[in-house]
Amino acid sequence: MSPSRSAMAEPTADGRFGAFGGCYVPEALIPACRTLEQEFRTAWADPAFRGELARTLKLYAGRPTPVTPATRLSAELGVNLLLKREDLAHTGSHKINNVLGQGLLARRMGRTRLLAETGAGQHGVATATVGALLGLDVTVFMGAKDVERQELNVFRMELLGATVVPVTTGGQTLADATSEAFRHWVGQSETAHYCIGSTMGPHPYPWMVREFQRVIGEEARGQCAELLPAGVPDVVVACVGGGSNAAGTFAGFVDTSAQLVGVEAAGGAAIGSGSPGILHGFDSYLLQDDDGQVLEAHSVSAGLDYPGVGPEHSHLADSGRARYVSATDDEVLHALRKLAQTEGILAALESCHALAWVLRAAGTSELPSGSTVLLTLSGRGDKDAAQVRELLK
Ligand SMILES: *Cc1c(COP(=O)(O)O)cnc(C)c1O
Predict the structure, then answer these.
(1) CATH class in words for 5-56+95-205
(2) pTM
(3) Three-state DSSP class for 276?
(4) 300: CA distance to ligand 1 center in Å?
(5) Strands 80-85 and 67-69
(6) Span from the CA of 234 to the centroid of ligand 1 (angstroms)
(7) Where are the chain's structural domains?
(8) Which positions carry N6-(pyridoxal phosphate)lysine (predicted)?
């Protein structure tokens, strides 16, 4: 196998991408992870399952999402910028791709409940949405502090029929909600599927979620072939929280000459400022102090506020196939306004990290004038409007 083909292939049997990944869960959860891996493998190889997922993505989620040339902004920057529009998918981001995949898999496995953890609430809303669509009960674990901060998303989830459980242990945020969801899954894995929202967690999740998000990159590859004389862009860029929209995008281009760039939040740059460690079931770069205490991430965008990163990104960074950079909150706000006023697109703060790098790099040796760039716009910005208003005051 050539190096480019083996990049972003299946992880090893123990769930490793190079030195990262694995399945670090309590003994009681190992059978549940094994069963899930087998069930996913069988489903993914089954044309009936693939067909049902493709049909649901099309008729319910609105795929394929378009690739939009950012004409006015491109002229200003001197690069040819194309936007993969995940903001136009149902519920307003790429998260629906993964949750629909896991929801259909859970139903195929005979599970009747979905468990999820959520921080800002977006993955919780996507899970509540898919639960309603497929007739599955949904329980969402959420740190008590986040429940308070994200009142409107809690209401959305409840309106969609989900039960939101406030978690009052520890710091009462995402990390605690994740631990609680795992605890709950231990006793319920015969009836409940734990739906993880990004390319994180124990094997098989990082691999499975990347495969469910691969549709972004595969669509974009075909769309670029139509829009670009060279067929593939020089650079492919996406923001990285846990890493699912970036992994799905990169998967479509990893076997091409395109440079792959992931953009982390400066205050949550697990690859940029972290070191290897284990959190929530997997081995990866992680923000931690010298004693291995996990540090809190700080970012203007809740979706990138996680101290770790998916294990495959750690491997892509170490192998050199992808490059990881970061953007500051100020750069992100500037990028958000710029895109709104040149292209009429209000993007999510998370997505604006990728754009912030393009604005900074365009015309430099990192991104020379005349380059072609595909940027995955992971979500729409309506959810952030109130916060941006406060920040710009
Ligand atoms: C959740 C979210 C992200 C971060 O998640 P990844 O798994 O890194 O893709 C990015 N953008 C939007 C709009 C999100 O909702």
Answers:
(1) alpha beta
(2) 0.97
(3) strand
(4) 13
(5) antiparallel
(6) 23
(7) 5-56+95-205, 62-93+214-391
(8) 95
